[in-house]
Specification:
Elements: E1 4-6, E2 11-14, E3 17-20, E4 23-24, E5 32-33, E6 43-44, H1 52-55, E7 63-66, E8 70-75, E9 88-93, E10 100-103, E11 111-122, E12 128-136, E13 144-149, E14 154-158, E15 172-175, E16 179-184, E17 196-201
Antiparallel strand pairs: 1-2, 2-3, 4-5, 5-6, 7-8, 8-9, 9-10, 11-12, 12-13, 13-14, 15-16, 16-17
Length: 202
């Protein structure tokens, strides 16, 4: 079990490895400073021109995950697909360069509300690759999870079970080597908003 917990000393402990505390700020473009083991000054920026129309309610930094080489950052309020709260996610090298943008297929999807990362994922076609999972809990009014490789190429789309409208499938997501785990906090199967977690093979 990997833990990610803020320490009293002002550090963040990731699997027993101490790194600098993350510092979040918003100055109209939404940069965050992220401490990593080899550098304490890396800055990841929204990568837009900074006009109000492009950055307003983008919510850049809502979710963050990393592989050995890349970082993915969610911006579920961004209008990347043409409407506010369509959402986007941004993939960077660890030094903050090489930005790649990924989005859903459009609509008010809240794409990027959750993100997960796996250093190696086994796909059904036998391809092994580091991968990112991105949740879009309002996609198709029931939620979806998209899986991308580190270059931003879409590998898999995971849909919930039928008749899952309003269950917020994709509100949370975690990625393993062979499974993607997805939270649906408003699933009503065991009572109103009782919630559920789905495990999907990719």
């Amino acid at each position: 079990l990997r833990t990610f917990a803020e320490q009293p000393t002002g550090t963040i402990n990731v699997s027993g490895e101490v790194i600098e505390r993350q510092e979040f700020s918003y100055d109209g473009k939404g940069p965050i400073n992220v401490g990593v083991p080899f550098s304490y000054t890396d800055t990841y920026d929204l990568g837009l021109s900074g006009s109000l129309a492009e950055t307003f309610i983008a919510q850049f930094g809502s979710a963050i995950a990393a592989t050995e080489n890349k970082v993915i950052i969610g911006a579920p309020g961004n209008n990347g697909s043409g409407s506010y709260y369509a959402g986007s996610a941004y993939i960077y090298n660890h030094d903050g360069t090489g930005i790649t943008t990924v989005t859903s297929d459009g609509g008010t999807d809240y794409f990027g509300t959750s993100v997960g990362a796996s250093t190696s994922v086994t796909l059904r076609d036998g391809v092994y690759s580091p991968a990112f999972a991105v949740g879009a809990y309002q996609d198709q009014s029931q939620g979806r999870v998209y899986v991308f490789d580190e270059s931003g190429n879409q590998l898999v789309v995971i849909d919930p079970n039928p008749n899952s409208f309003g269950e917020y499938f994709g509100w949370s997501v975690a990625a393993g080597s062979e499974r993607i785990v997805v939270g649906s906090p408003r699933d009503d199967d065991n009572g109103t908003d009782s919630g559920s977690v789905s495990v999907a093979a990719v």
